[in-house]
Structure formats: C-alpha cells, structure tokens
Amino acid sequence: MRRGASLRAESYPQSPDRPATEGGSSSRDGRIGDSGVELLRVAYHATPLASVLDTVVRSAETRLRPLVRGVGLVVLRTGWGGELRAATAAAEPLEPLQSAVAGGPAFEAITGGSPVVIADLGEEQRWPKLMMAARRAEIAAILAVPLDAEPVGAALTFYLRGGLRSGLSGELRPVIDDSSLVVANAVAFARLELVAAHLKDALESRDLIGQAKGLLMARRSISSEKAFALLRETSQRTNRKLRDVAQGLVESGELP
Amino acid sequence: MSSPQLQALMRQTLGGAMQGAGLGADDLWRGYVTAGGSELPGVVDDLLAGRQALEPDQYDCLAQAINDHAVGLGQSGAVPYFHQLGGS
Question: Do the beta carbons of residue B79 and residue B67 sit within 8 Å?
C-alpha cells in the first residue's frame, strides 16, 4: 500500500511565517484567549461528558481560526467500551468516515502514538472516502494528533484550510496540551461517577447477600464463611446469579 | 499464600474466562464488589496482572463475578472456585 503522502509531524516545514488571524477571541499562537478560557471553566460535575468534548473541539477551532476549517475528536479505551466522538460543524460530515474498522488518521495517531500528517489529500491512498469528502469540503491538509490523556486513547483531527507550513506545530501545541488535560479530566470524572453508581448497586446486592448469609448462619449454625460458600455453590449448581440466590433465600426462606 | 503454580492457574483461569465472557475491567470490579470483594479497581488490576498475589477469597469473588456475568448473558457460569482448582 502506498503511504508516501502521509508524513510524520516533525517533518513538516518549519519557518517563521504565520497567517493573519480573524475574530477577536482567537490567539495567533494558540495560547488561551477568550475561547480557550471556556475550557478552564468546564464544570465536570455539572456537564455531560459529550458536552465537554463538544467544548474541546469548538474551543480548538475558535483558537486556531482561520488555520483550521474544522476539528474532530475521537476518544477510545474509556473503560466502559465503545468510543466517544465530537466534531465541529465543518468536521461533522468528515469524522464518521474515520472509524475503528475503516481506520483513519485519528485512529492511526492513537495506535501509533504520534501525529499523522496528510499534506496532499490527492496523493493519500489509505482512506479514499475521507480524502474525497475532505477535498470537496475544500480542506487542504489533515493533521491528526494523539492527546496525552492516559489511560484513554484520544486524538484531535485538524482539517486545515491551507497547506502545511512552518510554525504550525508551535501554534497547535497549546491547544493540544489544553485539550489533553480537559479530555483526561472529563473521562476520569465520568468514570468516577460510573464507579459510584456501580458501588450503589453493589452495596444493595451485598446487603441482600448479607441477609441471606445471616439466615443460613442462624438456621444451620454455621460460620459466615461457610454460609457464603454455600450461597456460592448454590449459585454455581443452579446457574443463577449470587444475588438472585440470596434474594430467593431471603424471600422464600429456602435454598433451591 | 498458594503456590506459584496455583497463582498462575488462577490468573490463567480468570483471564481466559473474562475474555470468553467479554467482561471488561470495570464490570469485573463491579461484580467482584457485589460478590463480596473489597479491593479498589487498581488493586484488582494488580491481582490479575500478577503484581500482587491472589488470595483464595479474592479469587473466589472474581470467579463469582465472571460467573454472574455469564449467567446474565444466558451462558453457563463455569469458572471453578478455588477449592475446585485444587486449592485448599
């Protein structure tokens, strides 16, 4: 397979020229401006994860205007399966053309742990549907950058208005760093909320199992360990969940 | 503590059963706590990875978690308990 059109990020040209910016809130070097402050204000406890990720891509696009036309975000290995996505309006039709099955620059960036640069969409052979759609959307180049957001894998895809040029890496770096931090924190917070919800379920089940153990201990004059082992063996023998065995015992007074 | 051979057998049994049941680390931990386990998620990761020795009670709770998950999927909960693996 031909891979010549894809370059490592460190190989794209470096010279001091920069484009003029437009809009009052973006910063020419990507430092936090008015739009970047939006990231600092994210209230993780009160904002759904999907909304946080939307904020990340929207902020990145605003800070990097007019350099980028659209920004996409993919988050993998969240701990609860599946993947998370966010995209700005211009990137929305393009992002679904990248997937774990079909591949794409973001997925390759996550897997390889380094940026994937597509300097010439006409030459890139690996993801033809994405390249065709991007050219129709007047994208000149695509840059996918992995985020430092362990334990999740995540990457931002920048759909660039102009071709690759010098100084690009320095302009993107603050946006990438800020996005990494926000994605890592948002996913960590969401995981903690999930763990708390799981704990609530688990504690309710354990209470039931505790009652069942107590019944067995009283009726059969056995230890807590023996009662628990009996419940487990009944679960295995009857192919029922431990919680269901305990519930049956508490409700009927009998082991199946 | 059980022998190195039994430790390896316990890990192998749990790892294979987790994969067979399509059970992820978070769901395993939830099931483990439900089944009486009391370690934090990171410790369970360490137990499965062999960074900490598995105690029989911990193994039984993990086996129960996998079996409960399998039963929920309509499968058979076939992971043996510690004493059925030859432990005492």
Answer: yes
Contacts of B36 in chain A (CB under 8 A): 206, 209, 228
In chain A, domain spans:
6-193, 200-252
Q: How crowded is residue A154: how many other Cβ atoms within 10 Å of its Cβ?
A: 28
The CATH class for the domain spanning A6-193 reads alpha beta
Interface confidence, given as ipTM, is 0.89
At the top level of CATH, which class does the domain A200-252 belong to? mainly alpha
**CA–CA separation, B54 and B6 (whole Å):** 10
Distance CA A234, CA A209 (A): 13
Q: What is the pLDDT of residues A8-36, one digit of tens each?
A: 334 333 333 333 333 334 444 545 555 56
- Asked if residue A171 lies in contact with residue A95, where contact means CB atoms within 8 angstroms, the answer is no
Q: Do B34 and A202 touch (CB under 8 A)?
A: yes
- Count: domains in chain B: 1
